Amino acid sequence: MLAAQLAADKESSVEKHDGREAGQVRLDDPWRDSLASGWGEVDGVGASTPVLPVPASEPEPARRAADVYLEVQHSPAFQEVRRRYRSFAFPAAAAFFLWYVAYVIAATMAPDLMGRPVAGVINVAMVAGLAQFATTFLLTWAYARHARLRRDRAALELRWDTQEMTRGVRR
Predict the structure, then answer these.
(1) What pTM did the predictor assign?
(2) Element (H, E) at 122
(3) What is the chain's percent helix, strand, coil content, to nearest 5?
(4) What pairs with residue 48 in β-bridges?
(5) pLDDT digit string (tens) for 25-81?
(6) C-alpha triplet 37, 38, 44: angle, nearest 5°
(7) How high is the pLDDT of residue 170?
């Protein structure tokens, strides 16, 4: 009885459903013949792009891509996105770090202050500790809002411009 059960479990339900024997490899992969992104597509001039990737022995395309990224990095649009990021991230990180260090220092240097009751058994240390969590969520929300309102659109436009430049299509 146990041997029959083991033999029946040898094939998975998928293999039984497909009508295949255990261990056979399927060759009907639907993605096998599909083109990868950018292969066989029409470029901006109307000519077909090569189906095969450029061999690694030709360093010219890699150099051009690097030049494109350096050009984008030095562009005023990229510098503006970077400035907007830094103008929020650095002050916010510094403020949160100072708030955290103040909590740790107060907990170690002023135990009487941190042990002072606020309401019932809840003391200042508990309120400050929960405030650490609250400020984490508040900072996350503020960062996401700042990114959505101040940087995402400019970064997306910069990304599209960069992709067009690497494909050889300039506006």
Answers:
(1) 0.55
(2) strand 122-123
(3) 65, 5, 30
(4) 42
(5) 555 555 555 555 445 555 555 555 554 455 555 445 555 777 888 888 899 999 999
(6) 145
(7) 45
33 vs 111: CA distance, rounded Å:
69
DSSP category for residue 67: H
Q: How far from 141 is each of 8, 57, 63, 148, CA to CA, in Å? A: 54, 47, 40, 11
Task: Compute CA distances 130 → 91, 110, 134, whole Å.
Answer: 22, 18, 6
SS3 117: strand
Q: Which residues pair with 119 in a beta bridge?
A: 122
Q: How far, in Å, CA of 79 to CA of 74, rounded?
A: 7
**Distance between alpha carbon 1 and the CA centroid of its chain, in Å?**
53
Amino acid identity at 125: A
Tokens 């039984």 found at: 16
Q: Which two tokens stand for residue 27?
A: 């060759």
pLDDT in tens, 78-92: 999 999 999 999 999
Q: How far apart are CA 132 and CA 100, in angstroms?
A: 7
